[in-house]
Amino acid sequence: MIHKTDVAIIGCGPAGSTCGAFLRKYDPSIRVSIYERSRFPRDHVGESLLPMVCTILQELGVWDQMEAANFPIKVGATFQWGNSDELWDFNFLPKGEFHPVLRPSAYEGQRVRTAFQVDRAQYDLILAKFAEDLGCSLNYQLGVTDITRQGDRIESLTLQNGDSVQASYYIDASGHSGILRRKLKVNVDEPSQLQNVAIWDYWKDAKWAVELGTGGTRIQILSVQYGWLWYIQIGDDRTSVGLVCPVEYFKKCGLTTEELYKKAIGDKPLIANLLKDAERQNQLSTTKDWSFLSERMCGENWYLVGESQGFADPILSAGLTLTHVAAREAAFSILEERRGSNKDWIKKEYEERNMRRISQHIRFADYWYAGNKHFTELKDSVSAIASDFGLELSGESAFRWLASGGFVEEDMEVAGLAAVRLDQLHAISSKLSVEPPKSRLEGNNVFDLNLEFAESVQLATYREGRVLPIPGLKRGKKILPLNRYFAWVIDALKFSPQLDQALGYLNRVLSARGTTFDSVFQDRILEALEAMIRDDWVRAYYSPKFPVIHHYFQHTTGMVRPNLEGK
């Protein structure tokens, strides 16, 4: 039997269900069929979210259902990492404070800045049912066994029951399997020299490592001499505990998977104590856990979404963020194509953005490992990536290394890298490096725009089911959207290269428009300026003719601070 549809999606995990749901949300007439080889619900690793995911859940319309599931609220993470045994906290909330709230609560106030820690069996099922309620056709235990293609165009899918599916568009949301990607023979690059393996199991009635407000907590990321442990509360009485270690150590240690898992927990008293009265579910699982990046993300009538397009080490909890963002953008891209918009530009923007986003996360994860004294074998691997800067990366050299993809991200309101804001990155870098990074504003008082030899381009913004162009500049790999804070910095520096005069001008202009120019707004402007300096869109120098500018980035803030409670 031949089934015809508008969009055929392979896989009903968060990538497939999010993509399908967005397609139906913004075009209820479009036919979407999703094919899933597994039976739901089923466990899956990757339980820690970032706040950007919740923004997408809210737009999609499924936030209330997720909140009703009573998943623990993630307010940040506690790390034991770097060159000391101290614990330190990374907080999403500016002052590191989470206030008690009644649940379920609305997506407002402090909840906009927090995330969830989720039981993937429940989370994925909620998303799948939501996509189905919006009109997607879900087909469980009906995997794709073959793909017919003509050049770069997909002609049909063959299902395990022998039926075939013909569609206008095809989405590979099959995760690591990369069913469509492999059939198209899309090569993958492994830019990181770090190759790890993950081992994990689930525990019942384990102690919460941290209890904040009502349902608030932090994940625990703790080093052992041969890797690191995660401890993620994913429900009132269910906890995910896993070990990540180099695959070479795993092969040479002489221990079985079970023995290594028990050893890691025993070697970390903090974790062992939390599990002392808990019951293990004995569902030990393993997977290879090293980063890769597909050389293509889309083609004639197909898109790769989620882990089929690439994977970044889980140390940053970025997996579901990358997945949800790509799924949303793929859906919007298809909808925009169907409106007759410039197909080549739509695909180019989708591919470049997702490649840049994943590669930045890979690079940031590599840098994170370079700051861990326990990963002695990995130091040599990292040095192969960062050979220009030596084994021990200082704050400044680390920033230069990370900046190869640029500090300006068009998805963020302000400057950042790999979905981490620039001020947060400064604070994190001070924890992982011998020498903390310095602000490029410090000691300089003249800031000249350097926009020469830049190409005017149209960058994409994804909004309410549309892919819309915004003006931007591109020079090499560096991009600069000409909107929001970056546009305001340009206007201010055109008025005067002296920072005090530029800020005064900006204050007058924006205040006349009704925009509040408070200290938070000024900080965002200065972060944008810092990023533009580091990406060479602005040249900063000192002139004795003008007052000296003093500007320091704090290395201990409410967002990154020592854990004085020891937990």
Shape: globular
- Helix count, DSSP H or I runs of 4 or more residues: 16
- According to DSSP, the number of beta strands is 27
Sheet having the most strands: 10 strands, mixed
Beta-strand percentage range: 25-35%
Structural class determined from secondary elements: alpha+beta
Low-pLDDT sequence parts: 376-392
CATH fold category name of the largest domain: FAD/NAD(P)-binding domain
- Percentage of helical residues? 25-40%
Mean pLDDT over the residues: 87
The CATH architecture name of the largest domain reads: 3-Layer(bba) Sandwich
Note the quaternary state here. Answer: single chain
Overview of the molecule:
The longest helix is centred in the middle third of the chain and has 28 residues. It is globular, with a radius of gyration of 24 Å. 33% of the residues lie in helices and 25% in strands. Helix 1 packs parallel to helix 9, helix 14 packs across helix 15 and helix 14 crosses helix 16. The protein is α+β, with helices and mostly antiparallel strands and 567 residues long. The termini are far apart. The strands form 6 sheets. Strands 3, 4, 5, 11, 12, 13, 14, 15, 16 and 27 form a 10-stranded mixed beta sheet that branches. Strands 1, 2, 6, 7, 8, 9 and 18 form a 7-stranded mixed beta sheet that branches. The protein folds into 2 domains: 337 residues, FAD/NAD(P)-binding domain; 96 residues.
